[in-house]
Structure formats: structure tokens, C-alpha cells
Amino acid sequence: MVKKKKKEDGFEKLARLIKEEGEETRAVLRDEFKTEIGRVERKMDVGFFELKQRLDETVQPQLDEHAHRIKILEDRPLSR
Known about the structure:
The chain is 92% helix and 0% strand. It is mostly helical.
């Protein structure tokens, strides 16, 4: 019975070591994923900011032109 107990202790030790290694690996991967996700979020923020600026540069002149046309129509007297 003593030998069997030692084998179980060996298996328990092996299981514990495997579990610890798995936990360490998960912790490292979790940190790497967080870092990578942070990089992607920053790239997205920059990309969306640039896209918003380009849309503003494209749309704003059109809005100004429409506002100018509306102003002309509002100032024009109604003829009947």
C-alpha cells in the first residue's frame, strides 16, 4: 500500500505542476491579449477619428451650400 500511495503522490504532483503551468500560460496569454486588444482599440480610435474628419471635410461644404440656397429662397419675396 505504501508504494501505491507514493505513485498517487507522484501523479498528484504531476497534476499540480500541469495545473500551475496551465494557469501561468493562461495568465501570460491573457496579458498578451489585453495588450493586443489595447493596440487594436487605439488603431480603431485613430482610424475613426480620421474617417470622421474626412467625412466632415466632404459633407460640411455640401451642408453650407444647401444652407446658402435655403437662405436665398427665404429672402426671395413670394410672387403670385
